[in-house]
């Protein structure tokens, strides 16, 4: 399933990696508390990094190819990162989300694509119609990094989907490191229980919301809205760099006024300009809803769970939930 349409050359990176001869950030292997060598795990971006850390614990050395605060869609691998991928015993990634990572996965000895478990069933442009036109109405109709037939990659915003990936990751780690298989499965079970509690809290809190219309800067929240019964209306579509047309801005503003929407949501790694424009036109306020593609110093929590709970608080207030 295609997520993005950018292609990244990889042959030069592989050549550079072979010349450098470096396999990890410091060229050495770490040792666990029990004296065994830690399993080297490379992940493509934050939600997968966090899952690997939670499941692997002390027995894995986890790194992420996407730096904190960076936009993961735009990642281009350096030769050093290409070497990291080749050296890792397990590479965890989401196929189609980051083209340069897809290319690197072809040379990995332990690539694990989570997309089958994530069940990427929503389209990138899935957004409620506001005027007979959907969110495809934007400048540049076919721009870099965006495809009308692509899938929405943001599965981790649905704790149920994310939990399935966690379970599958535990089995991958168990296969690579049978000695600690029981520990991986136990850690995954614990984390999956926490995700189950998170899902229950979202369900209980959000079923009381007066407004079920979720107006966002772009359509990154499809899995969250589908899980908890909201209608997502994106000013722009899936790409945070995409500029909506004046017609789309007017249509969304009219929708906000007609449906008495009080809050327009922007996010941490994208410009708030689009959301602010609609807010000014309608008198709505702007609030930050974090798509959790990566943590920054502006994130409302220290990890996935705390940021998701901050998101829940934001939604409770913005959607007027009792």
Considering the protein shown, what is the CATH homologous superfamily of the largest domain? Nitrogenase molybdenum iron protein domain
CATH classification, class level of the largest domain: Alpha Beta
How many domain modules?
A: 2
Protein structure class: alpha/beta
Distance between the termini: 39 Å
Q: Rough shape?
A: globular
The biggest sheet amounts to:
4 strands, parallel
Spans where pLDDT lies below 50 across 5 or more residues: 4-27, 132-149
Helix content: 40-55%
Structure, described:
This protein is an alpha/beta fold and 322 residues long. The protein has 2 domains: 11-114 and 154-196, Rossmann fold (3-Layer(aba) Sandwich), CATH 3.40.50.1980; 202-318, Nitrogenase molybdenum iron protein domain (Rossmann fold, 3-Layer(aba) Sandwich), CATH 3.40.50. Helix content is 40%, strand content 10%. It is built from 11 helices and 8 strands. It has helices spanning 11-20, 46-56, 79-87, 99-105, 115-118, 159-176, 181-206, 222-228, 246-258, 273-282, 304-318; strands spanning 39-43, 60-64, 90-93, 111-113, 213-216, 231-234, 263-266, 285-288. The strands form 2 sheets. The protein has a 4-stranded parallel β-sheet with strand order 2-1-3-4, with helices on both faces. The two termini are 39 Å apart. Residues 4-27 and 132-149 have low confidence and may be disordered.
